[in-house]
Amino acid sequence: MSSKAGSSNGVEVTETEPLLRARVPTTGNYGIGRTDGDSDGDVEEVLIQGNTKDLDEENVEDEIIGIPGNSTNSVADVPGEKKRLGAISAAFLIFNRVIGTGIFATPSVILRSSGSVGLSLVLWLIGALVAACGTAVYIELGTGIPRNGGEKNYLEFIYRRPRFLTTCTYAMYAVLVGWSSASTSVFGEYVLHAINPTHTPSTLAVRLISLLAITSAFLLHGSKPGWGLKLQNTLGVFKLLILAGMALSGLAVLAGVPGFHLDDPPKNFEWNTMWKGSLSGGANAFVTGMYNVIWSFIGYSNANYSLSEVKNPVRSMKIAAPLAMISISIVYFLVNIAYFAVVSKEEILGSGRIAAALFFGRLWGPQTERILSGVVAMSILGNILAVLFSMGRVVQELGKEGILPFSSFFASNKPFGAPMAGLFEQWAINSLLVAFVPAGDAYHFMLNLSTYPCSLINMTVSGGLLLLKSSVLKYEWDPPFKSWWFTTCLFFLSNIFLVVAPWIPPARGFQPYETLPYWASNF
């Protein structure tokens, strides 16, 4: 990384590829401006994309990343971020975000949708391919604009007109959606089931336990961010070890290792039975399966929200994102192999229980079901911590731009060197959803709120990256990592699929809600 300095018309420019930092007067509206905590108030630091060149006040605005943000002195008291994340912590941000309850429960849904063991494994491979494409897209965007905020920055850079449209739209999406509400709501169920699997817990008890979890995560990340990261990383290691153990156990059954013998092993991998029943549910069921598989890998962009706090973000992103997603893809596929090595297809389809419960019960006995519930609960807690950590920083970035009411409050790192106000906003919206939305269709509707907007954002971001790669947009774009055209196109098309698929009427006999129309699940 080279560094050189120059000045023109009193504006100093310093190059740090791929971004430039320029000190410019704060009297104008210069896009995403950032004020140093020790600034004297008459200059402001902004990030500029491109090569070193002479700049003056008249042409500086068109060079600044994040047009059309707002740079005012209202956020002048915001201290700079502390670089507390290394490549491993960034990888666990992604790992914990992706792996929640999906790998424990989703395989049963995928098998039912595909109709056969073989086709379900093919779907998981397709999901891994789409996830790899999405990872490459977000590595390119993250290394090109390595700062907190994620998609907010990319949308602002690509879609510059009308001014403030993308920023305000994204602000509503980021602030009003309960990103952790789904994970938080089921956390209480698994904790209470681990304590007493024979008793059906009350709704009040489940919600109280869930609120305790997200409140603890908020207080930990807000007051002791270093401790929060350590717990987050520890839970990530725990999940990885548990899933690796499950995968190895399944492979041991297939290899006939002593101690892993089954009296009546399933025949799921015999060629004649492996593909039996493929597409028996029709095209609609297959689409449902594909939709669920792709969603099981969502979370590869989670480190992008916190890049200002990552040490050497360009290098770290090139390591962390592939490391996390390759590990997840391998673990996902091997755990599915393990399920089918231990539990028959008919038992998975006919029992109505999640595949992981059947796997634990058959291999180690029904009494291990409590252990499984505890494992899933710890996996969910890691997910809650990772999502809250990242989204709190997105809210802080919106505060720094003056987009939110009380912007200086949301932009601040006071009093503990963490975005306490941004974390509080996320805690509040998620807690309200978990605590007060009534059970039934309304509750499931609120929990599904994050999925469809996320598909729209991914589609818009990947489509915008295609425009950057083409000659349509004349913006200078030369990040240190570039995804292939093919990967960007495939990711864009996969998100078009995720946007369109939920509008297809479900198969007869399957309705996501009891009283609401099926398309309400899109929102």
From TrEMBL:
Q: Name one GO molecular function term.
A: L-amino acid transmembrane transporter activity
Sorted alphabetically, the keyword list is: Membrane, Transmembrane, Transmembrane helix
First-listed, main subcellular location of the protein, grouped into a coarse class: membrane
**UniProt keyword annotation of Membrane present:** yes
What InterPro entries does its record include?
Answer: AA/rel_permease1 (IPR002293), AminoAcid_Transporter (IPR050598)
Subcellular compartments = Membrane
Give me the ranges of the annotated region Disordered: 1-42
Q: How does it sit in the membrane?
A: Multi-pass membrane protein
Coiled-coil-forming residues are none
Stretches with biased composition (Polar residues) = 1-11
TM spans (from-to): 90-110, 122-143, 164-182, 202-220, 240-261, 281-298, 319-342, 371-396, 449-468, 483-504
Tell me, what's a Pfam family for it? AA_permease_2
| Protein name (database record) | Uncharacterized protein
